[in-house]
Amino acid sequence: MSAPKPLLTVNEARARILEHFAPLNTEDVPLTSAARRVLAADLHAPHDLPPFANSSMDGYAVRTAEAGQGATLPVSADVPAGSGIPAPLAVGTAARIMTGAAMPPGADAVVPVEDTDDQRERAGGAAPAAVTIHRAPSVGAYVRPIGQDLRAGQVVLPSGTLLGASTIGLLAALGFATVPVYRRPRVAIFSTGDELRPVEAALGPGQIHDSNSHAIAAAAEQYGAEVVRLGIIPDDLAAVRAALQQAASHGADLILSTAGVSVGAYDVVKAAIEADGELRFWRVNMRPGKPLAFGQAHNIPFFGLPGNPVSALLTFEVFVRPALLKLAGRRRWEKLGVQAALLEPMDSDGRETYARVIVTRQGDGYVARPAGDQGSAVLSALARANGILILPEGATRAAVGDTFTVWLLDGGETAPDDAR
Ligand code: AMP
Ligand code: MG
Q: Is the CB of 308 under 6 A from ligand 1?
Protein backbone atom coordinates (compact mmCIF):
# COMPACT_ATOMS: atom_id res chain seq x y z
CA MET A 1 0.00 0.00 0.00
CA SER A 2 1.26 3.51 -0.79
CA ALA A 3 1.50 6.07 2.01
CA PRO A 4 -1.71 8.16 2.41
CA LYS A 5 -1.54 11.62 0.82
CA PRO A 6 -1.16 14.42 3.39
CA LEU A 7 -4.44 16.17 4.12
CA LEU A 8 -4.96 19.61 2.59
CA THR A 9 -5.14 22.52 5.01
CA VAL A 10 -8.39 24.45 5.06
CA ASN A 11 -6.72 27.49 3.46
CA GLU A 12 -5.08 25.44 0.71
CA ALA A 13 -8.34 23.72 -0.05
CA ARG A 14 -10.27 26.99 -0.19
CA ALA A 15 -7.67 28.66 -2.42
CA ARG A 16 -7.72 25.71 -4.84
CA ILE A 17 -11.50 25.73 -4.88
CA LEU A 18 -11.80 29.46 -5.54
CA GLU A 19 -9.55 29.20 -8.64
CA HIS A 20 -12.39 27.33 -10.30
CA PHE A 21 -14.96 30.09 -9.85
CA ALA A 22 -15.51 33.35 -11.70
CA PRO A 23 -18.38 35.84 -11.49
CA LEU A 24 -21.46 34.94 -13.52
CA ASN A 25 -22.95 37.03 -16.33
CA THR A 26 -24.76 40.24 -15.61
CA GLU A 27 -28.31 41.43 -16.17
CA ASP A 28 -30.28 44.63 -15.61
CA VAL A 29 -33.00 44.49 -12.97
CA PRO A 30 -35.49 47.12 -11.79
CA LEU A 31 -34.38 48.85 -8.62
CA THR A 32 -37.53 47.46 -6.97
CA SER A 33 -36.09 43.94 -7.14
CA ALA A 34 -32.44 44.77 -6.51
CA ALA A 35 -32.33 43.95 -2.79
CA ARG A 36 -29.70 41.28 -2.01
CA ARG A 37 -28.36 41.43 -5.57
CA VAL A 38 -24.74 42.29 -6.32
CA LEU A 39 -23.85 45.32 -8.39
CA ALA A 40 -22.05 44.36 -11.62
CA ALA A 41 -20.52 47.73 -12.57
CA ASP A 42 -19.06 50.81 -10.91
CA LEU A 43 -21.95 53.26 -10.92
CA HIS A 44 -21.23 56.97 -11.38
CA ALA A 45 -23.45 59.76 -10.09
CA PRO A 46 -25.42 61.16 -13.06
CA HIS A 47 -25.95 64.44 -11.18
CA ASP A 48 -24.95 66.24 -8.01
CA LEU A 49 -26.64 65.09 -4.84
CA PRO A 50 -28.42 67.11 -3.67
CA PRO A 51 -28.98 68.54 -7.15
CA PHE A 52 -29.47 72.10 -5.80
CA ALA A 53 -28.61 74.03 -2.64
CA ASN A 54 -31.51 73.75 -0.23
CA SER A 55 -32.63 74.51 3.28
CA SER A 56 -32.26 71.92 6.04
CA MET A 57 -34.76 73.76 8.28
CA ASP A 58 -38.11 75.50 8.11
CA GLY A 59 -37.24 79.17 8.54
CA TYR A 60 -36.10 82.26 6.69
CA ALA A 61 -33.46 82.52 3.97
CA VAL A 62 -31.35 85.66 4.49
CA ARG A 63 -28.09 87.39 3.68
CA THR A 64 -26.06 87.05 6.87
CA ALA A 65 -24.75 90.63 6.45
CA GLU A 66 -28.34 91.92 6.77
CA ALA A 67 -29.55 89.49 9.45
CA GLY A 68 -27.86 90.52 12.71
CA GLN A 69 -29.53 89.76 16.04
CA GLY A 70 -32.66 91.91 16.41
CA ALA A 71 -32.89 92.88 12.73
CA THR A 72 -36.39 93.05 11.27
CA LEU A 73 -36.61 92.16 7.57
CA PRO A 74 -39.62 92.39 5.25
CA VAL A 75 -40.61 88.92 3.96
CA SER A 76 -40.36 89.20 0.16
CA ALA A 77 -41.07 85.61 -0.87
CA ASP A 78 -42.46 82.28 0.32
CA VAL A 79 -40.58 79.18 -0.86
CA PRO A 80 -42.21 75.77 -0.25
CA ALA A 81 -40.35 72.56 -1.15
CA GLY A 82 -40.90 71.58 -4.77
CA SER A 83 -41.59 75.11 -6.01
CA GLY A 84 -38.65 75.27 -8.39
CA ILE A 85 -35.64 77.56 -8.15
CA PRO A 86 -36.88 80.82 -6.57
CA ALA A 87 -36.08 84.33 -7.79
CA PRO A 88 -32.98 85.96 -6.29
CA LEU A 89 -33.54 87.26 -2.75
CA ALA A 90 -34.40 90.98 -2.87
CA VAL A 91 -31.82 93.10 -1.06
CA GLY A 92 -32.71 93.81 2.59
CA THR A 93 -35.41 91.11 2.81
CA ALA A 94 -35.95 87.53 3.99
CA ALA A 95 -37.72 84.69 2.17
CA ARG A 96 -39.78 82.22 4.17
CA ILE A 97 -38.42 78.79 3.22
CA MET A 98 -39.30 75.18 4.04
CA THR A 99 -37.01 72.18 4.55
CA GLY A 100 -35.88 70.83 1.19
CA ALA A 101 -36.82 73.99 -0.76
CA ALA A 102 -34.18 75.48 -3.07
CA MET A 103 -32.24 78.43 -1.66
CA PRO A 104 -33.03 81.75 -3.35
CA PRO A 105 -29.88 82.94 -5.17
CA GLY A 106 -28.18 85.60 -3.07
CA ALA A 107 -29.23 84.13 0.28
CA ASP A 108 -26.33 82.59 2.22
CA ALA A 109 -27.99 81.20 5.36
CA VAL A 110 -31.27 80.06 6.86
CA VAL A 111 -32.55 81.28 10.21
CA PRO A 112 -34.67 78.49 11.73
CA VAL A 113 -38.21 79.59 12.53
CA GLU A 114 -37.44 78.90 16.21
CA ASP A 115 -34.84 81.72 16.11
CA THR A 116 -37.33 84.32 14.85
CA ASP A 117 -40.45 86.04 16.15
CA ASP A 118 -42.57 83.80 13.85
CA GLN A 119 -44.38 81.80 16.53
CA ARG A 120 -47.12 80.28 14.40
CA GLU A 121 -47.11 76.52 14.81
CA ARG A 122 -50.03 75.51 12.59
CA ALA A 123 -49.49 74.55 8.99
CA GLY A 124 -50.85 76.44 6.01
CA GLY A 125 -50.64 80.05 7.20
CA ALA A 126 -49.50 82.83 4.88
CA ALA A 127 -46.03 84.27 5.43
CA PRO A 128 -45.91 87.30 7.77
CA ALA A 129 -45.16 90.73 6.31
CA ALA A 130 -41.89 90.96 8.27
CA VAL A 131 -39.73 88.81 10.49
CA THR A 132 -37.43 89.68 13.40
CA ILE A 133 -34.22 87.69 13.81
CA HIS A 134 -33.54 86.56 17.38
CA ARG A 135 -30.23 84.82 16.69
CA ALA A 136 -27.83 85.92 13.94
CA PRO A 137 -26.87 83.08 11.56
CA SER A 138 -23.37 82.30 10.34
CA VAL A 139 -22.65 82.00 6.63
CA GLY A 140 -23.95 78.66 5.32
CA ALA A 141 -26.05 77.90 8.40
CA TYR A 142 -28.79 75.32 7.65
CA VAL A 143 -27.93 75.29 3.96
CA ARG A 144 -27.24 71.92 2.30
CA PRO A 145 -24.93 72.88 -0.55
CA ILE A 146 -25.25 71.39 -4.03
CA GLY A 147 -23.26 68.14 -4.21
CA GLN A 148 -22.84 67.90 -0.40
CA ASP A 149 -23.54 64.16 -0.56
CA LEU A 150 -22.02 63.29 -3.96
CA ARG A 151 -20.67 65.20 -6.99
CA ALA A 152 -21.75 64.34 -10.53
CA GLY A 153 -19.40 61.75 -12.03
CA GLN A 154 -18.15 60.40 -8.71
CA VAL A 155 -18.25 56.61 -8.22
CA VAL A 156 -21.35 56.03 -6.10
CA LEU A 157 -20.90 52.31 -5.44
CA PRO A 158 -18.28 49.91 -6.78
CA SER A 159 -18.99 46.73 -8.67
CA GLY A 160 -19.34 43.86 -6.21
CA THR A 161 -21.48 45.82 -3.72
CA LEU A 162 -24.23 43.77 -2.10
CA LEU A 163 -27.34 45.91 -2.46
CA GLY A 164 -29.53 46.61 0.55
CA ALA A 165 -31.65 49.35 2.07
CA SER A 166 -29.06 52.13 2.19
CA THR A 167 -27.44 51.43 -1.18
CA ILE A 168 -30.82 51.06 -2.90
CA GLY A 169 -31.92 54.33 -1.30
CA LEU A 170 -28.79 56.04 -2.63
CA LEU A 171 -29.34 54.66 -6.14
CA ALA A 172 -32.96 55.84 -6.02
CA ALA A 173 -31.82 59.31 -4.94
CA LEU A 174 -29.66 59.38 -8.07
CA GLY A 175 -32.50 58.26 -10.35
CA PHE A 176 -31.36 54.74 -11.19
CA ALA A 177 -34.57 52.93 -12.21
CA THR A 178 -32.65 49.81 -13.21
CA VAL A 179 -29.26 48.54 -12.10
CA PRO A 180 -26.75 46.08 -13.57
CA VAL A 181 -26.33 43.07 -11.28
CA TYR A 182 -24.75 39.65 -11.48
CA ARG A 183 -27.04 36.76 -12.25
CA ARG A 184 -27.94 34.80 -9.13
CA PRO A 185 -26.05 31.50 -8.89
CA ARG A 186 -28.31 28.53 -9.57
CA VAL A 187 -27.44 25.73 -7.17
CA ALA A 188 -28.65 22.15 -7.60
CA ILE A 189 -28.84 20.26 -4.30
CA PHE A 190 -29.38 16.60 -3.56
CA SER A 191 -28.93 14.27 -0.60
CA THR A 192 -27.61 10.75 -0.99
CA GLY A 193 -28.33 7.84 1.32
CA ASP A 194 -30.56 4.75 1.36
CA GLU A 195 -31.56 5.58 4.95
CA LEU A 196 -33.09 8.96 4.06
CA ARG A 197 -36.78 9.78 3.95
CA PRO A 198 -38.46 13.07 3.03
CA VAL A 199 -39.65 15.27 5.90
CA GLU A 200 -43.30 14.53 5.11
CA ALA A 201 -42.85 10.72 5.18
CA ALA A 202 -43.10 8.46 8.23
CA LEU A 203 -39.89 6.79 9.32
CA GLY A 204 -39.44 3.05 9.09
CA PRO A 205 -36.87 1.12 11.12
CA GLY A 206 -33.33 2.37 10.51
CA GLN A 207 -34.51 5.41 8.57
CA ILE A 208 -33.95 9.12 9.24
CA HIS A 209 -35.36 12.28 7.75
CA ASP A 210 -33.23 14.03 5.15
CA SER A 211 -32.20 17.17 6.99
CA ASN A 212 -29.16 18.09 4.91
CA SER A 213 -30.89 19.11 1.71
CA HIS A 214 -33.13 21.48 3.69
CA ALA A 215 -30.28 22.98 5.70
CA ILE A 216 -28.00 23.38 2.69
CA ALA A 217 -30.76 24.86 0.54
CA ALA A 218 -31.55 27.40 3.27
CA ALA A 219 -27.86 28.30 3.55
CA ALA A 220 -27.51 28.69 -0.22
CA GLU A 221 -30.61 30.87 -0.42
CA GLN A 222 -29.36 32.99 2.44
CA TYR A 223 -26.28 33.80 0.35
CA GLY A 224 -28.35 34.77 -2.67
CA ALA A 225 -28.57 31.52 -4.63
CA GLU A 226 -31.54 30.20 -6.57
CA VAL A 227 -31.96 26.60 -5.45
CA VAL A 228 -33.00 23.59 -7.56
CA ARG A 229 -33.97 20.74 -5.21
CA LEU A 230 -33.25 17.31 -6.65
CA GLY A 231 -34.35 15.45 -3.53
CA ILE A 232 -33.07 12.19 -2.09
CA ILE A 233 -30.88 9.95 -4.23
CA PRO A 234 -30.14 6.34 -3.24
CA ASP A 235 -26.60 5.04 -2.69
CA ASP A 236 -26.43 3.83 -6.25
CA LEU A 237 -23.95 4.87 -8.91
CA ALA A 238 -26.48 5.09 -11.73
CA ALA A 239 -28.90 7.09 -9.56
CA VAL A 240 -26.22 9.60 -8.54
CA ARG A 241 -25.11 9.96 -12.18
CA ALA A 242 -28.73 10.58 -13.18
CA ALA A 243 -28.94 13.32 -10.53
CA LEU A 244 -25.79 14.98 -11.90
CA GLN A 245 -27.34 14.84 -15.39
CA GLN A 246 -30.51 16.44 -14.04
CA ALA A 247 -28.50 19.23 -12.40
CA ALA A 248 -26.88 19.93 -15.76
CA SER A 249 -30.20 19.99 -17.59
CA HIS A 250 -31.48 22.56 -15.03
CA GLY A 251 -28.57 24.83 -15.98
CA ALA A 252 -26.96 24.64 -12.54
CA ASP A 253 -23.91 26.84 -11.88
CA LEU A 254 -22.98 24.69 -8.90
CA ILE A 255 -23.92 21.21 -7.70
CA LEU A 256 -24.01 20.31 -4.01
CA SER A 257 -24.58 16.82 -2.66
CA THR A 258 -24.26 15.46 0.84
CA ALA A 259 -22.94 12.10 2.12
CA GLY A 260 -21.49 9.18 0.25
CA VAL A 261 -17.99 10.67 0.01
CA SER A 262 -16.40 8.79 2.89
CA VAL A 263 -14.77 5.37 2.81
CA GLY A 264 -17.98 3.36 3.37
CA ALA A 265 -18.74 0.41 1.13
CA TYR A 266 -21.74 2.25 -0.41
CA ASP A 267 -20.09 5.66 -0.86
CA VAL A 268 -20.64 6.01 -4.61
CA VAL A 269 -20.55 9.78 -5.05
CA LYS A 270 -16.83 9.95 -5.76
CA ALA A 271 -17.16 7.25 -8.42
CA ALA A 272 -20.03 9.16 -10.04
CA ILE A 273 -17.96 12.35 -10.21
CA GLU A 274 -15.03 10.47 -11.69
CA ALA A 275 -17.34 9.02 -14.33
CA ASP A 276 -18.98 12.33 -15.33
CA GLY A 277 -16.23 14.83 -14.63
CA GLU A 278 -13.27 15.07 -12.38
CA LEU A 279 -12.64 14.63 -8.66
CA ARG A 280 -9.99 17.08 -7.47
CA PHE A 281 -9.46 16.02 -3.87
CA TRP A 282 -11.44 14.65 -1.05
CA ARG A 283 -9.73 15.02 2.31
CA VAL A 284 -9.22 18.27 4.20
CA ASN A 285 -7.57 18.72 7.59
CA MET A 286 -10.72 20.10 9.16
CA ARG A 287 -12.94 19.03 12.01
CA PRO A 288 -15.70 18.37 11.44
CA GLY A 289 -15.75 17.60 7.74
CA LYS A 290 -12.65 15.71 6.67
CA PRO A 291 -14.37 13.83 3.82
CA LEU A 292 -15.02 16.74 1.46
CA ALA A 293 -15.08 16.16 -2.27
CA PHE A 294 -14.60 18.90 -4.83
CA GLY A 295 -14.50 18.67 -8.56
CA GLN A 296 -16.75 19.03 -11.55
CA ALA A 297 -19.46 17.04 -13.25
CA HIS A 298 -20.57 17.93 -16.77
CA ASN A 299 -18.20 20.89 -16.35
CA ILE A 300 -20.23 22.27 -13.44
CA PRO A 301 -18.33 22.78 -10.17
CA PHE A 302 -19.34 20.18 -7.63
CA PHE A 303 -19.02 19.85 -3.86
CA GLY A 304 -19.64 16.52 -2.19
CA LEU A 305 -20.30 17.65 1.37
CA PRO A 306 -20.06 15.22 4.29
CA GLY A 307 -23.22 13.41 5.38
CA ASN A 308 -23.13 14.35 9.03
CA PRO A 309 -25.41 17.37 9.32
CA VAL A 310 -23.02 19.58 11.34
CA SER A 311 -20.14 18.73 9.01
CA ALA A 312 -22.27 19.48 5.98
CA LEU A 313 -23.24 22.94 7.22
CA LEU A 314 -19.77 23.86 8.46
CA THR A 315 -18.04 22.77 5.25
CA PHE A 316 -20.69 24.79 3.44
CA GLU A 317 -19.75 27.82 5.53
CA VAL A 318 -16.00 27.33 5.06
CA PHE A 319 -15.84 26.34 1.38
CA VAL A 320 -19.15 26.73 -0.43
CA ARG A 321 -20.06 30.16 0.88
CA PRO A 322 -16.88 31.82 -0.49
CA ALA A 323 -17.38 30.06 -3.83
CA LEU A 324 -21.02 31.20 -3.99
CA LEU A 325 -20.05 34.77 -3.13
CA LYS A 326 -17.39 34.76 -5.85
CA LEU A 327 -19.87 33.36 -8.40
CA ALA A 328 -22.33 36.04 -7.34
CA GLY A 329 -19.80 38.80 -8.05
CA ARG A 330 -18.74 39.67 -4.50
CA ARG A 331 -15.14 40.79 -4.15
CA ARG A 332 -14.66 39.70 -0.54
CA TRP A 333 -15.70 36.54 1.18
CA GLU A 334 -13.82 36.58 4.50
CA LYS A 335 -16.07 36.33 7.50
CA LEU A 336 -15.27 38.89 10.18
CA GLY A 337 -14.61 37.38 13.57
CA VAL A 338 -14.35 38.63 17.10
CA GLN A 339 -11.81 37.49 19.68
CA ALA A 340 -13.37 35.52 22.52
CA ALA A 341 -11.87 33.93 25.63
CA LEU A 342 -12.87 30.36 26.46
CA LEU A 343 -14.94 29.81 29.61
CA GLU A 344 -14.35 26.04 29.51
CA PRO A 345 -11.38 23.99 28.28
CA MET A 346 -11.70 22.32 24.88
CA ASP A 347 -9.86 19.42 23.25
CA SER A 348 -8.98 18.97 19.62
CA ASP A 349 -7.21 16.30 17.58
CA GLY A 350 -4.98 18.85 15.85
CA ARG A 351 -7.21 19.38 12.83
CA GLU A 352 -8.47 22.95 12.29
CA THR A 353 -11.58 22.75 14.43
CA TYR A 354 -14.83 24.67 14.03
CA ALA A 355 -16.46 24.47 17.46
CA ARG A 356 -20.07 25.36 18.06
CA VAL A 357 -20.17 27.97 20.83
CA ILE A 358 -22.35 30.42 22.64
CA VAL A 359 -20.60 33.75 22.70
CA THR A 360 -21.56 36.53 25.07
CA ARG A 361 -20.15 39.88 26.09
CA GLN A 362 -18.04 40.17 29.20
CA GLY A 363 -16.69 43.59 30.09
CA ASP A 364 -15.13 45.06 26.94
CA GLY A 365 -14.73 41.71 25.19
CA TYR A 366 -16.35 38.39 24.39
CA VAL A 367 -16.35 35.01 26.09
CA ALA A 368 -17.35 31.67 24.57
CA ARG A 369 -18.45 28.26 25.86
CA PRO A 370 -19.41 25.12 23.96
CA ALA A 371 -23.03 25.18 22.79
CA GLY A 372 -23.38 21.47 23.58
CA ASP A 373 -22.06 18.13 22.39
CA GLN A 374 -19.48 18.74 19.66
CA GLY A 375 -20.37 15.59 17.73
CA SER A 376 -20.70 16.10 13.99
CA ALA A 377 -24.21 14.63 14.03
CA VAL A 378 -25.47 16.82 16.89
CA LEU A 379 -27.41 19.43 14.99
CA SER A 380 -29.09 20.85 18.11
CA ALA A 381 -25.74 22.21 19.36
CA LEU A 382 -25.24 24.08 16.08
CA ALA A 383 -28.84 25.28 16.21
CA ARG A 384 -28.21 26.60 19.74
CA ALA A 385 -24.84 28.18 18.87
CA ASN A 386 -24.50 31.82 17.89
CA GLY A 387 -20.83 31.51 17.03
CA ILE A 388 -18.21 29.20 15.53
CA LEU A 389 -14.91 29.19 17.40
CA ILE A 390 -11.86 28.26 15.33
CA LEU A 391 -9.18 26.19 17.02
CA PRO A 392 -6.18 26.45 14.71
CA GLU A 393 -4.47 23.48 13.10
CA GLY A 394 -2.00 21.85 15.49
CA ALA A 395 -3.77 22.88 18.71
CA THR A 396 -4.81 19.90 20.81
CA ARG A 397 -5.82 21.54 24.05
CA ALA A 398 -7.31 24.93 24.73
CA ALA A 399 -7.43 26.20 28.31
CA VAL A 400 -9.87 28.49 30.10
CA GLY A 401 -8.98 32.08 29.19
CA ASP A 402 -7.28 31.21 25.89
CA THR A 403 -8.48 33.55 23.17
CA PHE A 404 -9.64 32.44 19.73
CA THR A 405 -11.36 33.88 16.68
CA VAL A 406 -15.12 33.38 16.71
CA TRP A 407 -17.37 33.89 13.69
CA LEU A 408 -20.68 35.35 14.71
CA LEU A 409 -23.25 33.33 12.82
CA ASP A 410 -25.37 35.15 10.28
CA GLY A 411 -28.74 35.93 11.72
CA GLY A 412 -27.10 36.21 15.15
CA GLU A 413 -26.89 39.98 14.95
CA THR A 414 -29.05 40.48 18.02
CA ALA A 415 -27.11 41.04 21.23
CA PRO A 416 -25.09 37.91 22.01
CA ASP A 417 -26.33 38.18 25.59
CA ASP A 418 -29.69 37.00 24.25
CA ALA A 419 -28.22 33.61 23.31
CA ARG A 420 -30.23 30.77 24.73
P1 AMP B 1 -22.15 9.09 4.99
O2 AMP B 1 -21.30 10.23 4.55
O3 AMP B 1 -23.03 8.59 3.91
O4 AMP B 1 -21.32 8.00 5.62
O5 AMP B 1 -23.11 9.63 6.12
C6 AMP B 1 -22.61 10.07 7.35
C7 AMP B 1 -23.73 10.23 8.36
O8 AMP B 1 -24.58 11.29 7.95
C9 AMP B 1 -24.63 9.02 8.49
O10 AMP B 1 -24.98 8.89 9.85
C11 AMP B 1 -25.84 9.39 7.68
O12 AMP B 1 -27.00 8.72 8.08
C13 AMP B 1 -25.94 10.86 7.94
N14 AMP B 1 -26.62 11.54 6.84
C15 AMP B 1 -26.32 11.40 5.56
N16 AMP B 1 -27.13 12.15 4.79
C17 AMP B 1 -27.96 12.80 5.62
C18 AMP B 1 -29.02 13.71 5.42
N19 AMP B 1 -29.38 14.11 4.19
N20 AMP B 1 -29.70 14.17 6.49
C21 AMP B 1 -29.33 13.75 7.71
N22 AMP B 1 -28.32 12.92 7.98
C23 AMP B 1 -27.64 12.40 6.94
MG1 MG C 1 -24.17 6.95 3.59
A: yes
